[in-house]
Structure formats: structure tokens, C-alpha cells
Amino acid sequence: MNPIEQLIRGFQDLVAQVPDLVAPFIVMLAGAVPFIEGEVAAMIGVVGGINPIVAGLAAAVGNFVCVLFVVLLTSRARTAVVNRRRAALVAANASASRYSGASGTADSVSALDATTSEKPESKGRAKFKRWLVRFGVPGASILGPLALPTQFTSAILVAGGTPRGWVLLWQAVAITIWTTVGTVSIWAALTFLVGV
């Protein structure tokens, strides 16, 4: 028995100590973690000896539930920020028109924009934004996991103004595709290469 096979057998023995009904929930929790997500969580489940279909479904559900919470939270935060900016702009316009006529509108808009500070953009975020411009929401959602976790890409999309339903639809498609690819590839590697 080679060292990789020994490592896998040891991991499977460890997972075998967990009750059969609890193991998919552990995979589901792993799928909710950014950078692990559905594809890696499914791989961990399959390596642990869980049925590949069960591991893939549990990992995808865990990942999607986390994305759902992120989308709902980001949507509420975006709504609050937009409403606050509108209120500040209206107040600035009202005070500008009261003191200098209606000509202060452009100055108040530029003053409001100047108050928001920008952090330098990471490489992953820059790559994701390029994909978003080039391929739209569907392409950016499907290619996004190559640069950033799905939780981050969904937050970026919703914060940018993309409708929640559209983001959730395409994130579900992306999670399904990448989890299936991860599950099938690790199953094939274990079956045909390692022989476990």
C-alpha cells in the first residue's frame, strides 16, 4: 500500500467514527466556508468515504445557503447605503439651493463622492471585475470561483446593483458546475488512480 493510499484509508477510518447521518452535515458546514466552498468540501467528503452524490449535494447546499445569507445581507446593506446617500444628497441640495440658488447641485454631488474613500483593489477583485465587464453576470458567476470565493463574488455583484434573484440564480449554476467538477474528478482519481 503506497503512502497516499495509507493516508486516505486513515482519513476514511477517522470519518467512519462519525455517525452516517452527521457526516453530510459536516460536509455541508465545510461547503459554507469561503475558499473551501462546495468543490473542496465535496472532495473532502468523497475522500472520507461518503457517497459522492451525497457529498456533492451536501457541499453544494452548504455553499448555496451561505451565499444566500451573504446576498440577503449585502442587499440590505446596499439599500441602506443608497437611501442614506439619497437623503444626504437631498439635504445637500436643499441647503445649497437655500443659500446659493439651485446652482449648488453639482458641487454637493462632487462633495458627497469625495467623502467616500476607496481601498486599493486586490488582484482577484480586479480579475473578477474584468470578467464581469467582458462576460456579464452569468460568465462572472461561473468564472468567479477561479479568482474569488462565491460568497465574495455574490457580495460584489449585489453591492454593484445586480438584482438578488439574478445573482442567486447564476451563483447556484456556478456552485452546481464547480461542485460537480470537483466531486467527479476526485471520485475518478480515487477510483482509477489510487484504487480506493
From TrEMBL:
Q: Which residues cross the membrane?
A: 21-47, 53-75, 131-148, 168-194
The coiled-coil regions, if any, are none
- Give yes or no: UniProt keyword Transmembrane helix: yes
Stretches of Polar residues bias are at 100-115
Alphabetically ordered keywords of this record: Membrane, Transmembrane, Transmembrane helix
Give the residue ranges for region: Disordered.
99-118
> Under which name does UniProt file this protein?
Small multidrug efflux protein
**What species was this sequence derived from?**
Agromyces protaetiae
